[in-house]
Amino acid sequence: MAINDVTLTASMRTNLLQLQSTEKRIGEKQNILSTGNKINSALDGPTAFFAAKNLNQRAGDLSSLKDAMGQSISTIKAADKGITAIEGYMEQARGLTTAAYAALGNDASSIATRKSLAKQFNTLKEQIDKQAGDSGYAGKNLLAGNGMRLDSTSASRSTTNSIIGVDNSRVTNVTATDTYAVRVRGTGAITGASGDINSAELAHGLTNLNVTGTMNTEKGNFSDVSIEVRGATGRERTFIVSDGTEARTISYFDNSQTALATTVTPAKTGVAQVTNVAVGGTIEEGDTFSITLEGQTFKYSATADDVALGQDGRKNVATKLMQSISAALAGNGRLVSNSMDVASVSVDANGIIQLTGKTDALVIRDMAVSASAENAATKRISESFASGTVVSFTVDRKLLEQASNSGNGTSTIEKRVDLQISATNLNGNVITRDGMAARGEGKLQDGENSFAFDTGTVRFGVDQKTIQQAANASQAANLVTVQVTDANTQNDLTVQLNERNTNSITVTSQNLSSSGQGLRIDYAQNDWMDRSDIDKAVAGLDYAKDYLRSASQNLSTNLSIITTRETFTKEFSDVLVEGANKLTLADQNEEGASLLMLQTRQQLGTIALSLANQSQQSILRLF
Predict the structure, then answer these.
(1) Distance from chain centroid for Cα 203
(2) Nearest by Cα to 69 from 579, 513, 558
(3) Is this structure's pTM higher than 0.85?
(4) What is the mean pLDDT of the chain?
């Protein structure tokens, strides 16, 4: 049966349509309550729907920007932590320079202390570089700088290293490109510091102390000369003369030399007196032997030839004394007189002097004989060393014994060598390390030597054994610095501040390495041998402190900007979301009340439809 065959009354049709409308609206309200949105699609309200969508999309973009800003803030904070650590290293380095100032002095202990402190300073410098390299975050390192690097060329280093006695040439702390002409010159003549020589003479009773010679071309050195004296007055004295690792030991004044007169046949009437004089003990050059005959004294001092290797010193001395006495017995000699009781003198194969007196049948002719021996008043010492150094001096026994502590102790004489190495840059500035300079005043030394210019520090090792060869040949070479790598921006941090990318900020990476393009903290120069070397280290730390402070301020300013913008972005994103919600969110109370009203209306409609249907049923009962 077709639907049109069923006829509804007007009231029933009205009630039915009303119920259908109410049912639809109830469904809409339930959907609103379940989603919380009064606008769920463009059909619900195109204007509000698309306006809210735009607001939510912008809020989402800003939220992504906020996350990126957060990562940028972390990158800056990582750099700030690195700066704090670097500041700590710099303070430690400054403490080392203070300790070095306190250890200024040319004694071995002070030199060793400064050398140790310089090594520690270099370790801290390297840690600064490592700290700067380890301060990156998410692929960005704001302490790495722009990557530009200046260094000496490999070819120029090789050329400089070809100078005899020079190796490991390089340029550190390069601030600008330059060319340095390195030259070696000097005669190699060796002398000693006059003040040290005077002190050594006074300390050990020495005279005519000289340090001379010419630097050996294969075994040369810049080492100090030392003279050590041991022993006691009246006993053997030992002199140890050293040059670098080479030493000579000489013993003098052992006080063992003797001259003893012994009468073997006493004088009698008709019998001549025979007296023997024996020369004994260890005889050294300068030892003096005396024989007194009848009031006449005959002296002889042993010479170097008398005591030379292979010589019988005792027999040589006895022979010389015998010859002197024999001369006095001849001609008009001192012993030629009737009043003199000496008749003859001879020396046997054992070096014993035999004195024979005169005889008289009526009178006893006694011969007065005495003998003595005395240490040499002076001793001449001259020692030559492999380095080419010659140390010579005269020891005065009396001055030695009168000296403080009986002349015992050690004296050091600073060696001066006529040898210079200079470096000259393109501006004509010249820096020279001179072997003739006093220690602490730019003295050339074995090992690394540094030449600090405004554009960089020239460094190379010097071999003291062979450097004289380069000086003899007046060798020279150029050490050249160039730009090795170009600057770049790969470590710069660019932060987008709005969703349209019309506002951004770039945080420039700061070079906080110790290089010449960054903090300019150079390696310790010349093991801090000179006060000026320590001064340069302090100047470098002062520059680094100001540079670090500027870099820290720059990062702080950028951090403040980005942090402020991050806060704004978060709050503004919340405003956009709130605005979108105002367009789409439903009032739950209002919508709940509307649903309740519609449900009531639905119930009333159902009742009305039922009443209309009952009127039709009443008509049916009539049949």
Answers:
(1) 37
(2) 558
(3) no
(4) 88
